[in-house]
Design a protein that fits this description.
With 190 residues, this protein is mainly beta. It has two helices and six strands, in the order ααββββββ. The protein starts with a helix and ends with a strand. The longest helix has 19 residues. A three-stranded antiparallel sheet has the order 1-2-5, with no helix packed on it.
Length: 190
């Protein structure tokens, strides 16, 4: 949600609370704790509730902040033992192409992530691609594997969709490959 929308919702909420909270049991705006007849107690109106709304964050405080519900990534940990690069640690082990009809279909990317570190766990985030021999991107999907312990291999699969355009054929089961992948070393849990 953009900052201006957050501000608008906060202002609207404040106005509603102020307008509905200002009406007391006597039915007349901002009167005291007694009605005009001199008897105590109200006639069941809304009581005033004081609410403190914290200040909204400024533009600079929200830049780079993760979206609500986004996965939280750990800060890179200091390396201990052997630390390897991401090259060769993510491999395609299967590429299943399925036709769903009307020139569309899905590709299932089957992969393995092998953490070559000796002491550090790692988080892997990147893309898997289906690319025609001429270099045309046909489908892609995101790879997210967190906390892969050192020396272990973790299998996974994700799906991507493709469309057969004019002059194109269904992608080949040999078209899957690993795109850009980032590896972040984190403290091992074990």
């Amino acid at each position: 949600m953009k900052l201006r929308h957050v501000r608008a919702v906060a202002v609207f909420t404040l106005v509603v609370v102020a307008l509905t909270g200002a009406r007391r049991g006597g039915g007349g705006g901002c009167d005291d704790d007694h009605d005009s007849s001199g008897s105590s107690g109200g006639s069941g109106g809304v009581d005033v509730v004081e609410t403190t709304i914290p200040p909204l964050p400024t533009e600079t405080e929200t830049e780079g902040a993760p979206a609500p519900g986004a996965p939280k990534s750990s800060a890179p940990a200091k390396s201990k033992g052997k630390v390897t690069s991401v090259k060769g640690e993510v491999k395609i082990v299967g590429c299943v192409v399925e036709k769903t009809g009307d020139g569309m279909g899905t590709i299932t990317f089957e992969y393995e992530v092998s953490n070559g570190n000796s002491a550090m766990a790692a988080n892997y985030e990147g893309t898997l691609l289906a690319v025609d021999p001429d270099g045309t991107l046909r489908a892609n999907s995101f790879l997210i594997q967190h906390q892969i312990e050192p020396g272990t291999t973790w299998p996974g699969e994700v799906k991507g969709s493709y469309v057969v355009g004019p002059g194109q054929k269904v992608p080949s089961s040999k078209s899957c490959k690993v795109g850009d992948v980032n590896k972040t070393n984190v403290a091992s849990r074990g």
